[in-house]
User: Which sequence fits this backbone?
């Protein structure tokens, strides 16, 4: 079984995001970038499938600037076998990413594509579902458990009301939620080994996908600031403030 | 212009999230049609027909639609969408699962999780866990949109008198099967619509200790939530999680207990009207956004809170 894992390079989740003064976007200059945390979980799951003998090959894919290579090296150090880098500067909307992934799926013929359920930069939560729709494959989204037996998959999904189980035919698309696994840290020997693994380069033009955005970002603004920071000295004072001053209880 | 709203429901009841989506759809300008997809859900369609601002209800029912599997529902949405300028769904896990798949079939770049409608083609949506707000304009002919329910007031559930029209499904795609659900049962209000929410974090130290919060919740008529840390630690189930990737809540009062206030948690609750917190670490970031912060050991403070509420005779509203 071949598994593809798309990974995205995003602002590290610990970084406090700053909006640019001209409201054209957020400031990415000199900011620490990392692999999207949900994608780390996807890589981990794919590598575990390989370690369990279920998967035979794990291929990581990233789309973005030259530096996205670093993100791919992380995936390779975690255990992916090889990588594909679609080099592109500038914005890529989820639909365009999904279209390019669909083309790569056509070339690679995987049995499974495992993605993070959302990227923590645009918070769109779309790419996996879009890809499944484009390919006409089944989709298991927001999964916290995965079982593969023969040609069938059973997944547990985290939904608003609790948990849901669905069965899927292969090939299929999976998007992973936080509690599927705990991603490993790459060991130094594996980081060294990853340097020798192959990263194939492509362009959106190679894949025949038009990357013209459909959405125009008119403005990126800071959210209104909360005026917090007041402290109370006791529970009695807290209840008094909530009851008499704020009037919320 | 006409707008199609995908109804969120469980075959028995129309969820309140649908009412928020109807309000958002109304702001886009045009007649609002609600699409109810499921099986044995006539009562849901009847409820949708009574919602104010709804001009028509489309009802698609068959066995393949019962569990609203994305593979079977998305083609139906894509087929019906041709007659509409917008398709809108609440950003519940159902809407998030189905809508992008329909967007793929329609070759549309969906706008996710909008918090405001600027005009028929321009919307505001949070990015970076709500640390920035992007205003985006869509150039797609049919706009697909999911709506953050907490920022749109619910439409009136009564007073409308829309007609209900039956439509056919597109059949079973044969890609997926529903194998079952384990849904949390509790008598308390739903997290996303509760007037008061009390949430616990890692500081709670165990699932049993959440009983303390439940006792306070029962006095105030509150829902109980949790931070990711508390869910990851197994104290409470996943549907308790408030945050960037869990539920987004905006109650009148949010009480954070033993929660440090990680960015991804704040993303799910910082639009609450009043925020109170109890934490023994006075350096915890939650204090910076709390209207009323109490530095205290929660194991003393929470029982004391319960006692004080009882003493004052404060009850659920």
Assistant:
């Amino acid at each position: 079984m071949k598994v593809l894992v798309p990974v995205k390079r995003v602002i590290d989740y610990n970084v406090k995001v700053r909006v640019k003064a001209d409201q054209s976007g957020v400031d990415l200059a000199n900011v620490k970038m990392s692999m999207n945390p949900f994608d780390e979980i996807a890589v981990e799951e794919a590598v575990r499938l390989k370690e369990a003998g279920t998967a035979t090959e794990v291929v990581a894919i990233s789309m973005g600037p030259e530096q996205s290579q670093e993100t791919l090296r992380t995936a390779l150090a975690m255990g992916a076998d090889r990588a594909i880098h679609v080099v592109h500067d500038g914005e890529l909307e989820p639909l365009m990413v999904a279209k390019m992934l669909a083309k790569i799926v056509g070339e690679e013929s995987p049995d499974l594509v495992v993605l993070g359920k959302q990227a923590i930069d645009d918070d769109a939560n779309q790419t996996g579902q879009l890809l499944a729709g484009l390919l006409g494959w089944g989709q298991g989204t927001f999964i916290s458990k995965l079982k593969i037996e023969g040609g069938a998959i059973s997944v547990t999904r985290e939904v608003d009301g609790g948990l849901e189980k669905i069965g899927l035919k292969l090939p299929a698309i999976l998007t992973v939620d936080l509690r599927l696994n705990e991603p490993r840290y790459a060991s130094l020997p594996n980081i060294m080994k990853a340097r020798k693994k192959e990263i194939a380069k492509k362009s959106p033009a190679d894949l025949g996908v038009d990357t013209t955005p459909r959405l125009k970002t008119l403005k990126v603004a800071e959210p209104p600031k909360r005026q917090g920071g007041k402290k109370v000295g006791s529970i009695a004072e807290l209840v008094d403030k909530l009851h008499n001053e704020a009037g919320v209880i | 212009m006409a707008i199609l709203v995908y109804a969120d429901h469980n075959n028995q009841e129309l969820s309140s999230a649908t009412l928020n989506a109807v309000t958002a759809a109304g702001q886009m300008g045009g007649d609002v049609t609600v699409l109810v997809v499921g099986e044995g859900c006539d009562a849901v369609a009847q409820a949708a027909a009574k919602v104010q601002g709804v001009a028509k209800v489309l009802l698609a029912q068959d066995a393949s639609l019962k569990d609203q599997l994305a593979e079977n529902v998305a083609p139906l949405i894509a087929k019906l969408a041709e007659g509409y300028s917008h398709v809108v769904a609440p950003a519940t896990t159902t809407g998030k699962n189905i809508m992008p798949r329909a967007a793929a079939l329609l070759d549309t770049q969906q706008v996710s999780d909008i918090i405001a409608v600027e005009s028929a083609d321009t919307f505001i949506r949070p990015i970076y866990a709500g640390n920035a707000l992007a205003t985006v304009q869509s150039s797609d002919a049919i706009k697909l949109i999911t709506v953050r329910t907490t920022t749109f007031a619910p439409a009136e559930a009564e007073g409308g008198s829309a007609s209900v029209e039956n439509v056919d499904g597109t059949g079973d795609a044969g890609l997926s099967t529903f194998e079952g659900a384990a849904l949390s049962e509790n008598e308390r209000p739903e997290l996303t619509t509760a007037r008061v929410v009390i949430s616990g974090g890692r500081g709670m130290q165990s699932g049993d200790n959440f009983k303390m919060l439940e006792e306070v919740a029962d006095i105030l008529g509150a829902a109980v939530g949790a931070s990711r840390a508390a869910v990851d630690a197994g104290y409470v189930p996943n549907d308790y999680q408030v945050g960037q990737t869990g539920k987004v809540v905006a109650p009148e009062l949010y009480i954070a207990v033993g929660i440090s206030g990680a960015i991804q948690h704040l993303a799910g609750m910082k639009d609450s009207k009043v925020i109170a917190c109890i934490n023994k670490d006075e350096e915890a970031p939650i204090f910076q956004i709390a209207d009323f912060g109490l530095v205290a050991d929660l194991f003393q403070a929470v029982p004391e809170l319960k006692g004080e509420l009882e003493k004052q005779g404060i009850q659920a509203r």
Notes: The longest helix of chain B spans residues 298-312. The mean pLDDT of chain B is 97. Chain B has nine helices and 16 strands. The radius of gyration of chain B is 21 Å.
